[in-house]
Design goal:
There is one protein chain. The protein has 660 residues and is α+β, with helices and mostly antiparallel strands. 43% of the residues lie in helices and 18% in strands. It contains 25 helices and 20 strands. Strands 6, 7, 8, 9, 10, 11, 12 and 13 form an eight-stranded antiparallel beta sheet that branches. A seven-stranded mixed beta sheet has the order 17-16-15-14-20-19-18, with helices on one face. It has a five-stranded parallel beta sheet with strand order 2-1-3-4-5. The protein is globular. This is Response receiver domain-containing protein.
Length: 660
């Protein structure tokens, strides 16, 4: 391994130094010796034939002490491999030989060039780089420093051929890296590749390598070869993962605790006998006639949570995790994982079968129908079905995404054995499903459940507590059937109580739940104007540049805000640097200290973007411009008729579709 470093003065360099993230390992088969199957005998013969007419090659070999094998010796695999590696090693000592070897080691030279650029770009940021081939062992993977690596860049294919075996080797090696790191601060892993297929399989790689998603990223080598893009990527990693080791330690403790809790849970549940279930039914549920299956599902779920959370190591890591993060948003490398939506949906809603009914009352209904001497009228049959219906606070009835949903908001105690009072009123509050991307203003204090997903599409539920419907208990089933409603979800108690208490306008209303940390893509476009021409698109509309996030405002209301992503910086940075050349050449300052706004932005682009991206921004009102620093303005639904002083404006960022 060959470490080297430089110390340029830049915003990113300072950021890395502040966060003490200045040590990187780069793992790639480009650093491997030449392999047996990498160059064929026929290719070597052709190379020799092409250089027979010129004595230059022979002279260089003699100077370097390399013996050229004859045709018979080339058939010997070991002799051939030694010869090739002698040539490859000598390339660094002889520029003329390096030029000649281009035709023999074409693929290896391309890899070598890519890796050289990536390592050079890292070193420009003050990062000391250690290079490793694919054949390193855990004991060899050391830094020579008093600490472990902060970053590990590893190739998706560790092998001369892009085979599954090469991928498996990369997965195995990154496991070894994290295993041999004995400190709590594990390195941030960056998976890199020149293959477009690698990006599609990065999640499979992470899973097989058993890496934590929070400290694992993918970047194309084509991006890392660009020093400006790599600077942004590494800077974002430094800001985002200042406490990445705490995430790793917490997830490790959680998984370990889950394994122990599962073993204990299985042992304890299996130890219960039939008498225990009979006792639960007769002593706890007989009077209320609550279904045994529903009850033990809740009971075991609560017990599982207690088994998991009583683990002392997990408790200690949880306390650490509570203290390490600041309130600033991370730099988004893309849209958050869809798995977050799955997890959040399960915490907000319970999912039930639409056919769940009171088994005992349903049995009575069937017996009454079977015992009737004459056919019962449809109304009578419905009455018996109504008597078997079980309702709970938070039950949600859904028809379609375009029609209101309805939720039961009666007190839970009034719903227990509701069939005994068939005429009692069941209160149903309507809710409108609003696409999650819709922007809500700061002053909109409507009662909302901030996340609800149906058919894999995210919505908000905006509850209309002024239009609550009352329906007698013995008519609810009829209403459900006639309206073609399905009861699939139940909003969990804290969130259902929020809607219930809002309706009741009680002074003892509980605090609002924390909004879900979810995002929705927002379409962004960027404009600029050179001299006196018309504004034109610097970046065309794209949904990869920004996200709409949900935050809690100072008045405890949920607000929608705008957060910019790393791909936005990568695309915009390249465009700004190109435009700054033209803008600066045609600019006549009125004072010695003045520069063109676009030139000033280009000179400080990285710092401007990190200031821009570290906190969410309020959506401007349509037609209004809001400064986001660096002579850059933010607008929503901007049109060319809006007055802009382009002599003092570097860029105009427009939210092309605000979702309204």
């Amino acid at each position: 391994m060959t470490p080297s470093s430089t110390q340029p003065n830049s915003f990113i360099t300072g950021l890395l130094a502040t966060n003490k993230m200045t040590l990187a390992a780069v793992i790639d088969d480009a650093f491997d010796p030449i392999q047996e199957n990498e160059v064929t005998v026929d290719q070597i013969r052709e190379f020799h034939q092409n250089n027979e007419t010129d004595d230059t090659f022979e002279t260089l070999l003699a100077e370097l002490g390399i013996t050229k094998p004859d045709d018979e010796e080339l058939q010997d695999e070991e002799r051939r491999t030694v010869y090739l590696n002698n040539l490859w090693s000598a390339r660094t000592d002889s520029a003329p030989l390096r030029e000649l070897l281009g035709s023999l080691f074409q693929a290896r030279f391309e890899k070598d060039k890519d890796l050289a650029l990536i390592c050079e770009n890292l070193e420009k940021l003050g990062i000391k780089v250690h290079r490793f081939g694919s054949d390193f062992t855990g004991s060899e993977f050391v830094t020579g420093e008093s600490r472990f690596f902060d970053f590990v860049f590893i190739d998706y294919f560790l092998g001369t051929d892009n085979s599954d075996e090469a991928v498996r080797l990369a997965e195995q090696k990154i496991k070894e890296v994290h295993t041999c790191c004995t400190t709590a601060r594990k390195p941030v892993t960056v998976l890199m590749s020149s293959s477009p297929e690698a990006a599609k399989h990065k999640e499979r790689f992470r899973k097989n390598a058993e890496l934590v998603e929070g400290v694992f990223r993918f970047s194309a080598k084509s991006e890392l070869k660009d020093e400006h893009i790599l600077s942004l990527v590494v800077g974002a990693l430094a800001k985002e993962f200042a406490h990445s080791h705490e995430i790793q330690a917490y997830v490790k403790a959680l998984c370990t605790a889950a394994e122990a809790a599962l073993a204990q849970f299985q042992e304890d549940v299996r130890s219960l006998n039939v008498e225990d279930y009979v006792f639960i039914q007769n002593q706890g549920l007989e009077k209320d006639e609550q279904p045994l299956g529903d009850y033990v599902t809740w009971l075991y779920g609560s017990y599982w949570e207690q088994l998991l959370m009583r683990d002392q190591t997990l408790q200690a890591q949880q306390k650490k995790l509570n203290t390490v993060f600041e309130s600033n948003f991370p730099i988004l490398h893309g849209q958050p994982s869809p798995k977050l939506a799955d997890i959040y949906m399960s915490t907000l809603f319970e999912e039930h079968s639409d056919s769940v009914t009171n088994a005992r009352q349903l049995k009575k209904a069937k017996e009454a129908i079977a015992a009737a001497t004459e056919s019962l009228e449809p109304e009578a049959i419905l009455a018996h079905m109504n008597s078997s219906l079980e309702l709970s606070l938070g039950d949600i009835f859904v028809k379609s995404e375009t029609e209101p949903i309805w939720m039961v908001i009666n007190a839970q105690c009034d719903l227990a054995r509701a069939y005994l009072a068939p005429g009692q009123s069941i209160l149903l509050v309507p809710g409108k499903l609003v696409p999650w991307a819709t922007v809500f203003g700061q002053n909109e204090n409507s009662i909302r459940t901030e996340f609800f997903r149906i058919h894999d599409i995210p919505y908000r539920i905006v509850w209309d507590i002024k239009s609550v419907m009352s329906c007698p208990f013995d008519k609810v089933w009829d209403w459900k059937i006639r309206g073609a409603y399905t009861r699939r979800f139940r909003l969990k108690l804290p969130f259902a109580l929020e809607v219930q208490r809002a309706f009741a306008t009680k002074l003892t209303r509980i605090g609002l739940p924390i909004p879900p940390p979810l995002t929705s893509a927002v379409q962004i476009e960027v404009y600029h104007r050179l001299k006196s021409g018309k504004p034109y698109l610097v970046l065309p509309p794209s949904t990869t540049y920004a996200s709409q996030v949900c935050t809690r405002g100072s008045s405890n209301s949920v607000e929608s805000k705008l957060l910019f992503t790393l791909p936005f910086a990568q695309q915009l940075g390249a465009a700004v640097r190109a435009l700054a050349v033209t803008a600066g050449a045609g600019f006549t300052p009125s004072g010695n200290q003045q520069t063109h706004p676009l030139v000033a932005l280009a000179e400080n682009f990285d710092e401007w973007f990190f200031n821009l991206a570290e906190e969410p921004h309020t959506f401007p009102k349509p037609g209004k411009l809001v400064s986001v620093g660096g002579n850059v303005w933010l607008a929503v639904d901007w049109t060319p008729t809006t007055t802009v002083d382009w002599t003092k404006t570097a860029l105009l960022i427009n939210v092309a579709s605000s979702g309204k």
